[in-house]
């Protein structure tokens, strides 16, 4: 019994240490202007206030940037599910010429940093007239090698006999995919949706490169721009950071059961 208590105490301490920056950021967001600049920095506000959040929405126009990020993240998640799930299932269960070679090439491309492709991708977007548009932001998020790999590994666990039985009954490939495969892929769909939403919501570099119109900025890009204008206003910047983190944190907490199930059951097999 004492050993279990010590282990739990150490785990709780580690969790508190990991969460401390997030908790202090939230605390600072409720402080009055200039309060966080004192030395030593206070852990809790003397008098909690919502002034920083109200100022962000009233003067900085964060509401517009929040909606921009939300729309882009939802669209990127939907596109990611459509393309990655279709490609992952095809690589796992459909037979076509060069399937294994193409998949090996995709896996080899995983070692290439994404930043390397940003310049040629930007030039392609420029030639297509997609610079300073949301379509240009969404194109790289539509499909990912990691997403295809994740779905493929999970789809390999689906018994071939189940699919063959459906084909013998006269079901089309689309009917098999919609009625049999998609329900079985539910845990990995949630996992992929979380990854896609987080990646799009937190993405800073690509929207910064593609978007030039300030009204089209996403929340991370807008906060970076605001930080230059309010370099001394730590409390308001912390409030903006809380707004950036809160949606993805809530999403993860709501879907964490499916997320863990998808990672543990599917992605380690095959």
UniProtKB/TrEMBL annotation:
Alphabetically ordered keywords of this record: Cell membrane, Membrane, Transmembrane, Transmembrane helix, Transport
Organism: Massilia aquatica
Lineage summary: Bacteria, Pseudomonadati, Pseudomonadota, Betaproteobacteria, Burkholderiales
Protein name (database record): Carbohydrate ABC transporter permease
SUPFAM superfamilies attached to this UniProt entry: MetI-like (SSF161098)
Span of domain ABC transmembrane type-1: 66-255
PANTHER family named in the record: ABC TRANSPORTER PERMEASE PROTEIN MG189-RELATED, ABC TRANSPORTER PERMEASE PROTEIN MG189-RELATED-RELATED
Localization of this protein: Cell membrane
Signal peptide start-end: none
Database matches in InterPro entries: MetI-like, MetI-like_sf
Domain of life: Bacteria
Chief localisation class: membrane
């Amino acid at each position: 019994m004492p050993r279990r208590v010590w282990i739990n105490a150490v785990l709780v301490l580690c969790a508190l240490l990991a969460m401390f920056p997030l908790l202090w950021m939230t605390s600072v967001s409720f402080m009055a202007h200039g309060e966080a600049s004192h030395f030593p920095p206070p852990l809790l506000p003397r008098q909690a206030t919502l002034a920083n959040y109200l100022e962000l929405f009233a003067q900085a126009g964060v509401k517009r940037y929040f909606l921009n990020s939300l729309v882009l993240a939802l669209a990127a998640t939907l596109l990611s599910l459509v393309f990655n799930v279709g490609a992952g299932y095809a690589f796992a269960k459909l037979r076509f010429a060069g399937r294994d070679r193409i998949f090996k090439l995709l896996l080899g491309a995983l070692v290439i940093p994404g930043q390397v492709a940003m310049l040629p991708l930007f030039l392609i977007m420029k030639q297509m007239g997609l610079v300073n548009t949301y379509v240009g932001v969404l194109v790289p998020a539509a499909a990912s090698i990691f997403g295809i790999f994740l779905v493929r590994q999970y789809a390999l666990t689906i018994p071939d006999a189940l699919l063959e039985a459906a084909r013998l009954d006269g079901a089309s490939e689309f009917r098999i995919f919609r009625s049999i495969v998609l329900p079985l892929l539910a845990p990995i769909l949630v996992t992929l949706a979380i990854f896609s939403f987080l990646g799009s919501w937190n993405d800073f570099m690509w929207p910064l490169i593609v978007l030039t119109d300030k009204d089209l900025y996403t929340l991370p890009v807008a906060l970076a721009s605001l930080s230059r204008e309010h370099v001394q206003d730590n409390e308001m910047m912390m409030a903006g950071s809380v707004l950036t983190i809160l949606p993805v944190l809530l999403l993860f907490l709501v879907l964490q059961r499916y997320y863990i199930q998808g990672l543990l059951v599917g992605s380690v097999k095959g």
